[in-house]
């Protein structure tokens, strides 16, 4: 097997092919790491944790190591790949997570989260509100588009297999060509790339019913506990949004944390399962003495 270049994009997927709905969940690594994300055994990225989550709930799973798009930042593969996964497979939903996203409650199924986030039969895409950050000792705040609305973070993306979704993904992927959106070519290589292009252009044109594009609460799917206390954090920035990643934690600054959090989450889940198993078998585990034991007299 040919070994890919380290600057290529890495994508990981989970898919569900069972009733009542079919779900694919894809984890995507965008940023360069000390060890590239496709080297699962040495990388700090969260590839195998996503696979374990898929196995727990019966979702299909795939890992994609996508090729570089010439002239584009590598994360621009996202809308094209999402469209391909929906178009070429019999999945109702596809969910992507960046490799620096961790799942805090592995026993909670996606269907429950979809209900919590009000994802309806008309929803084409759902993704979380981004955190706002301020450059240390300046007044510059990042996290808003040119209209002053908080941007949506593409570290977690859920898409539903609908005609409207495919039309939206086509417009998103073609945005930098400027055939429809003048100025979008700026985001081909400028941070935050396809994420910013979605918030600048796509979300304003593809939400006719109000729930075609669903924002997920920042506190549910962004940042981590204590992020606002890091002053300054990496990149000379301060997190202003007090989001704790109650269900999905996005470690935009700390790429080394996903592996440790995965281990903690698995141990917590195992302990809960063991406790439940003990409760189920109390009749064979627990022995109650029928009368009070008297002291002395040796062992009876």
TrEMBL record:
Composition-biased stretches (Basic and acidic residues): 13-29
Superkingdom of the organism of origin: Eukaryota
Keyword set, alphabetical order: Glycosyltransferase, Transferase
InterPro entries linked to this entry: Glyco_trans_34, Nucleotide-diphossugar_trans
GO biological process: protein N-linked glycosylation
Organism: Zymoseptoria tritici ST99CH_1E4
Name of the protein described by the UniProt record: Nucleotide-diphospho-sugar transferase domain-containing protein
Similarity field: Belongs to the glycosyltransferase 34 family.
PANTHER family: ALPHA-1,6-MANNOSYLTRANSFERASE MNN11-RELATED (PTHR31306), NUCLEOTIDE-DIPHOSPHO-SUGAR TRANSFERASE DOMAIN-CONTAINING PROTEIN (PTHR31306:SF3)
GO cellular component: Golgi membrane
Biased composition (Acidic residues): 1-12
MF-aspect GO terms: glycosyltransferase activity
Region ranges (Disordered): 1-35
